[in-house]
Amino acid sequence: MTEDWAAVASAINQRAAELGFRQRDLIERSHVSKAVVGEITRNVVQRRRNTRTLEALSLALDWHPQHLTAVLHGRMPPSVGEPIYRFDDEDIPARLAAIEHQLHAINDRLDEIASINDRRDDMRSISRQLEELNANVAAVVRDRRSGRERTSR
Description:
The longest helix is centred in the last third of the chain and has 61 residues, at 92-152. The protein is mainly alpha-helical. The chain has 6 helices and no strands.
């Protein structure tokens, strides 16, 4: 499995800039040594790190604990609130929890879409009512004009 430490460094630096963190802030929040934070953020030493190091950095950056591990391995980072699971095929309960979380997210999105469709249907109904109202107003105006023309003759 290839590891992309440059992507990890980029993700950390970009997120720290977004949050207005300096390296010292990241060290204090993560409790990771200055040397290790410097090596990772500058991508100067590429070696296997303890999973807890990446988790601590992820949490310090207000991300899901497995965010940087996912970046390292070229996977889509999990969102905050998603369950924590091992990235192997042996952890069936964790994989099912992740799938369940994704299903809940899909269900929420489908509810939003249904709500949008309901509003669209309401707008179509209102549009039809306005068309009928306009037709009725036009008929009344025509009737009044034709009534005036008859009386003026």
